[in-house]
Design a protein that fits this description.
4-stranded antiparallel β-sheet, 9-stranded mixed β-sheet
Length: 315
């Protein structure tokens, strides 16, 4: 009997219990559990890994607590720009979008790019034009507005600081929750196929159309049936420079490492040497799931038909 497995994350960073109210903590747990249930139900019904991770991420994108979709942070210009990527480990097909605005669920657009565009990566207005052509749901700016995110942005918009979602070192009194806000999912389905996906609203106050690792195939997102599916969250620049997601696959393919060992090397050795903070989730062809972080916390959850069930925030 083929194992089915799903793991999800909602961002990593300096997430400390003492900074969290019991109500907020419970809200995060509920949000993770809802997304896990939604994605896992697809797998239980015999659905594909691609559809399962998409279902999980749509739920996270619709939840204001997470920096993706509806909960996306404000850029320097005071708007939301969203990135997303998805990859099918069976075919190595992939789809990604960056700098998209007003798209309710960027992960759905990335999936359309993978399936129907003959391309892998679309950006900005062109990606939005394609979304309209494909009938992807758009929302007005008000849909993406949250007072919490707006206040974060207002505090630093006149400076050259940027914030990796919830704060920057000059603003610790204002917001203690230094979180790399990204959501992601990885899955193994009943057919033995692996998929991975990631979605993000990027950095608060980001300038120049900055792009992080999330939508970059091989850096923030990667899937290959021969090895693993990986979704990353963290300081995107370091994950791009180390091609973090693909590096895990390479260590498995060329060195024969296990998923866990390969992820430990990338997250706790290679990234640490570069000063790269964050984490990643992974699944392999046997249904093993691993969630590794070098930061104080990572919103994460997972479930497998072999009995594994996890819901966690802190390290």
């Amino acid at each position: 009997m083929q194992t089915i497995t799903l793991a999800i994350h909602g961002g990593a960073g300096t997430i400390l219990k003492e900074d969290m109210t019991p109500e907020l903590e419970q809200a995060y747990y509920n949000g993770l559990q809802e997304a896990l249930n939604g994605g896992y139900a697809v797998l239980e019904e015999g659905g594909s890994a691609v559809n399962a991770i998409k279902a999980a991420i749509v739920i996270l994108e619709d939840n204001m607590l997470f920096n993706a979709g509806r909960g996306s942070v404000f850029t320097k210009k005071g708007v939301q720009e969203m990135d997303a990527a998805i990859m099918d480990g069976k075919t190595l097909d992939a789809g990604a979008v960056t700098g998209v605005r007003n798209v309710r669920n960027p992960i759905e657009l990335a999936t359309e790019v993978m399936r129907n565009s003959n391309h892998v990566f679309l950006s900005g207005k062109g990606a939005t034009d394609f979304a309209i052509k494909q009938g992807i749901k758009l929302e007005p700016d008000e849909y993406f507005f949250s007072q919490f995110r707006y206040d974060q942005w207002k505090a630093i918009r006149d400076s050259d600081n940027y914030s990796l979602d919830h704060t920057h070192q000059h603003l610790e009194e204002l917001m203690k929750d230094k979180k790399f806000g990204t959501v992601g999912a990885v899955a193994l389905d009943a057919e033995g196929n692996i998929a991975a996906a990631t979605s993000t609203g990027g950095m608060t106050n980001k300038k120049y159309g900055r792009i992080g690792d999330s939508p970059i195939i091989g850096s923030g997102t990667y899937a290959n049936n021969k090895t693993c599916g990986i979704s990353c969250t963290g300081h995107g620049e370091m994950f791009i420079r180390s091609v973090a997601a693909y590096d895990v696959s390479c260590l498995m393919e060329y060195k024969g490492m296990s998923l866990k060992d390969a992820m430990e090397v990338v997250v706790n050795e290679k990234l640490v040497k570069m000063g790269g903070e964050g984490g990643m989730i992974g699944v392999d062809a046997r249904g093993n799931a691993v969630m590794v972080l070098n930061s104080a916390g990572m919103y994460r959850a997972g479930r497998s038909s072999n009995g594994w069930n996890e819901l966690a925030i802190y390290k």
